[in-house]
Design goal:
five-stranded mixed barrel, alpha+beta, five-stranded antiparallel beta sheet, 40 helices, 50 strands, flat
Amino acid sequence: MTLDEIDFPRGGGTTLTPLEVKTIRAEAVREADQELFVSTKQPQVKRKKPKSDVKGKATEIGMQKKDGVRIEHLNYKRLTPGMKVLGQVMSIQPLALVVSLPNQLLAHVPITQITSQLTARLESTNTVEDEELDDDKSECSTQVPDLTDLFYVGQYIRAIVMSAHAPGTTDVVGLGRVRDDAVKASRRVELSLLPEKVNMGVQKVDLKVGYSLSAAVRSIEDHGYTIDLGVSGISGFLSFKEAHKRDSEGSRLQVGAFIDVSVIKMSSSGRICTLTNDPEAVVSSSISEVSNVSSVLPGSLVQSLITAVVPDGLNLQILGFFNATADEFHLPSTYKSLKAGEKLKARVLYDLPGTTPPRFVVTLAEHHIRLQLKATSEDQLLHAAFPVGTVLDSVQVRRVETERGLVVDVQSDQEGFVHISHVSDDHVPLLSASSGPWRVNTFHRARVIGYHPFDGILQLSFRLSVLEQRFLQAGEVQVGETLKGIVKRLTDSALFVSISGNVDGVIWPTHYADIPLKHPSKKFKAGVSIKCRVLAVDPERKRVVLTAKKTLLDTASPILTSFADAKVGLVTHAVVFRVSDKHLMVEFFNNVKAIVPAREASETGAKLSDIYTPGKVIKVRVISVDPEEQRIVASIRQTTSSFISTVTDISGVLVGDTVEGVVTELHKLNTVLSLKPSDVRALISFSALARHWNTTVPELKTSLKPGDSIASLAVVSRNSEKSFVVVTGCSKSERLKKATLSMETVAIGQIVSGRVTKYTRYGAHIKLTSRISGSLHPTDTSDDYETGNPFPAVDSIVRAAVTGIDKSRNYLSLSMRASRLSPDATLQPVDREINGIDDLNVGDTVRGFIKSVAEHGLFVMLGRGIDARVQIKELFDEYVKDWKGRFIANQLVKGRILNVDIPNKKVEMTFRSGDLTRTPASSLALSDLQEGQKVIGRVKRVEQYGIFIEIQGSKICGLCHKSQLSDNKDADVTVALRTFREGDRVRALILARDLEKKQLSLGLKPSYFADEDEAESDSEVSRDNELNVADDVSTDEALDESDSDCGSEEKPHDSTSDEELVEVGDGYDEHDYDDEAQDDTMEADLVPPDSTESSRRRGRRDVDSRSLKVDGFQWFANDDGSQDEKSHSESPAQSDSEGDTEKKKRKKRKEIEKDVTADMQTKLPDSNADFERTLLGSPNSSYLWIQYMSFQLQLSEIDKARAIGKRALQTIHFREEQEKLNVWIALLNLENVYGTDTTMELVFKDAARHNDSKTIHLRLAAIFDESQKYERAEEQYKRTCKKFGQSSKVWTLFAEHYFRRGLVEDARKLLTRSLQSLEKRKHLKTISKFAQLEYKLGDAERGRTIFEGIVDSHPKRWDVWSVYMDMEASKGGIQHLRNLFDHVLAIKMTSHKAKTFFKKWLDLERKLGDEEGAAVVKQKAIEWTQTAAKAV
């Protein structure tokens, strides 16, 4: 409730009393007489003795005028624009702050008046959103912080009044429609926190150490924040260390954040001040002197001197000069003992505008001095100690303010304020302190209706209607209570009901009645009383949701208002709010929801949507409650009269309990019992009961009848959802063992029960007691893994036998095997228990569970702590490529033991059938290989720097550097590398070995094998095959030996080195070569061969794949003479060599595979397979992809060429932007030649989205230009200029297009258009370009004129002079050039620049002129030098 001044008193007139008017008028007359008649003695005004309290007030005012400064309260009329005031954040709205001001006033701060940086961020967000609609490549700016991230309730802020509106103003930005009275009242006054406005008038000299002020974060730098102080000529810096020293892990300050800072250091230049935002430093910082009154800001802590004690407060002097006042609302608790002459700390609240000399209002209250919230004596905040709606039986009137209200004492240290409008339900024009019902020291009954946070007082009401009002706010309404309300209005979406005072409720359409209403307006009319029930309450949103359903109003069932109230078996009403095929979602009171499964919703099995509709009231029974997931399961079926309830409380029956029961039903496999005396349903299988009675199942079925009693049963598990337990027979020994579990008495074989809590690497973790836990390994869950449950569900109860005890950890090893639970049983387990590695023998067939799937095989759990390894080669009898997809963790598998290594505790296992014998590994080692030895191997991997080769039949791997592939030093070995693929058989020569580093270097040059004859080749192959033995360096070390990479390579020192060594072993990283090897091979995938013999054989043009220009682009090269060139280029020796090679291949075709190591550099892709293999080696080469597309186009496979282009874009690495651009240009060329306008437009838009849009636009225009589609090129240039009008390049290329077509006038018109669109800084560049085009393609004289204009206006643009001279030189006019050089050298310039021009002139004279001209240039150079020397 706002405490407003009386704007229009009854009967008109002024708000002042008659006596105050008379006093003020007398003062005015006296001041006028003093000014007009200085020499005239002013007669003394005689005053009559007051006859009433009102006249007594006049006397009091007169005494104040005589003895001290009058104390005035702040009101809305005195809040004028430009006034600075201290306030406190009362609430935070989405787009505004609601601020509490002194003397119970309210105001608001729009979000645009926080800081200028925050406003700029808001504006940039809107701009970015607009740009995103036009440009797909726009980047979203960082999110603007919410006001809740920048401010907190109770924060003190300095503000300046921007405007004050008339009472009742509602059109204020940032607040909108609200229900809170305080927020509504704050609309009247608009404040600003902008530092440049609040700190206006602060002088730079006043920014001394300890001076505090408001500021804004301008930017975030490397070591801190730059701060906007709003003071001209000075900036602030706040270091990260200082900003976050109290919260080192806190989030950084946002740009635009509003903070209070204190000066801790000034720079020597006086331009930078170091700040701190430490709350303690800000609170304790004070000022002792200022140079200007405008430097005294609200919130400043000053030293004050009491000059007079008056009835309404204190008169003080601050900063040794300025007068100040403090009213009774802002005095300390010890104010009664204060005397004149005392010094106190005070904090400035606001200045009184228009006073001379300047006067301030200060506060001495403790919570203001500490900048804290006001608290009660019990250290409780006001809203916690006195919630809104609290009724106070007796408050005492302490002070009467005639026209404002009453100040009352609520407690010894807590005051309240009763506005004059809340004193009584009747109109009260004035209050009296000595007479009437509200005089001083009278007691009254009051009710809390709000707070004044800044002054720290309660807002109270004496009105009888407020005291009798049932609710003052939504939070007081209780869920489930029945109440009566008045219909306020009915809309299409809801019905609004007035409950009490300003507390309203809402009824949604589904709650109008038990059935849907077609015409609710006929039932609900404004002003009609309605009975309803509270369905839910949301105090934060001040919303009360009601229901008018008769069933819910009249229900006698318990009301479910919280999850804690949900108990199994509870029957209550609920409302359906969602219907699906599998379940119903129902809602109780207070937004408590439950799910009704389809099986529990209907007994007939009908479709749920045909039976239930949203809004229908149903009766349900709670059948399950999950506290952890906050999930309630209910049933409709179990509430019907025909349903025999089976839901019983099984909480009293625990796993392990010994029970007895009576047979109630006999089923096919089990018996249903009713346990006594709890009547809990129990199930026991016929086989378990037969073992318990030592009989057979057939005999048991014939003899067992309903009503028979069965004793000595043990509970093994529980099902809380279905309310039954599972029991089994309990022998006498087991019953004797059952006792309280403890580590002192537990024994091996003892039966215990517990709950599964989680799963670890050792199996299920079982909680037995509060201190004792256990583990259950999957292999200990059953004697038959196939029928058992190796992984019990979490939270399930299990019964197990103790197999191991660890007293130090209070930990037990458990087993659920039947052979452990019933040791006397003679049934042999299907899966035997494996307790140690000694229990395994080679050839044993065992089953286990997959522990993990590794890169090179599986690990299988065979027993507790016993795992077996299965390598990839032991998984299947045949080759399976995607073997990982066939195995998952915890899968049951069966295999045979292949090897048992007892000392190392390692077990090898196989899933393959057949003989278990394996060929023993050979003893071939690196030392067995000799330099110069020739071996056969297979390509293991191809890298840019060479080929990794694995010697056949072993794990020894070596590197063949790319320099060892060909005898031709000029050959492009990159092409040769691309012809190799993994798995190729090759012959290699051992070049070098390093036994210490375990490295091996190989060579594949054809010359190494040129002298071999057929017999030597065969013997060599045979000899190599005899050495097919694996390296024994670390054969038993790791699982991935058989398929891991071969070894650690040494980085090559030189690309031409003949001795590159590669480590043999398991611990190497083949990527060690990348850093240095890539320096020599980085261009391999990018630049096609351009100078080799193979490129000449291809008969195609050289193409730079880094920038595949569209100039002269063609898909196919002229191959007519390629074969002839190839045949002529080959030497006879090469032909003979190839002929001999072909003969050898024909002879040995059935004996050995083809050797692909020779002449690799001359092999060209001539099929899809060749291209695919080549691309495997260089997937990022756009050159290869485009050649592949060209190959398909030669076969008229247009669609395949498109598909290859799209595939290339997906394959090429995203960092290879130029490579991707080349493919896009190729696709555009393809569509230009073979596509339609539609396909061209689609590819163009796609390319523009994925690349630089301007580049694609210009490339497409150039493509049209080159293909002589001039109209489309012109259209594309116009399109580009419209989108990228700020680019000078776009306009000059468009002009060049016109010049080349002979449209000279059109080209010249573009110059004027371009200068209108371009930035001014680009004008000179663009004009120069147009002048060059005139020289090249237009009128040279016009170009000369343009250049003359440029150099005349910009004489020292030496670059323009040089271009001008080059253009003249291209025309061969030596005389024009001489004039130009004479002109430019007449301008003052540096000697270095003059030397450049003289040298250029001399060169041109020698090319275009004569020797005489050259001599003149030399002479002029000497003269210029002498003149320059004299000038110095």
